[in-house]
Amino acid sequence: MLCVDNFLTGNKQNVEHLLGHRRFEYLCHDVTNPLHVEVDEIYNLACPASPEKYQRDPLHTMKNSGVGGN
């Protein structure tokens, strides 16, 4: 499993319990920038969920939902 996150709105503590697992890999990366990896499935959970956070940077939020899901 590959987790890609830059923790712009999240927290590394959310995945710390997985960091030592042999089937878990973490990559610090902003999904609005190109990333070429070979995977079977993608779950885009990058879009900020709270209005306060996504209104702070609406362009980045839009990119997360659009560009980050491709």
DSSP E strands, number? 2
| Spatial order of strands in the largest sheet | 1-2
The end-to-end span amounts to 18 Å
Proportion of residues in helical segments? 10-25%
Output the helix-strand order. EEHH
Strand content: 5-15%
Give the name of the CATH superfamily.
NAD(P)-binding Rossmann-like Domain
What is the residue-mean pLDDT, rounded to a whole number?
82
Q: Which structural category do the helix and sheet elements fall into?
A: alpha+beta
Question: What is the CATH class designation?
Answer: Alpha Beta
Quickly give the CATH architecture: 3-Layer(aba) Sandwich
Main sheet, how many strands, which sense, barrel? 2 strands, parallel
Radius of gyration: 13 Å
Morphology: globular
Number of domains: 1
Count of separate DSSP helical elements? 2
User: In terms of per-residue confidence, which ranges show pLDDT below 50 for 5 or more consecutive residues?
Assistant: none
CATH third-level topology = Rossmann fold
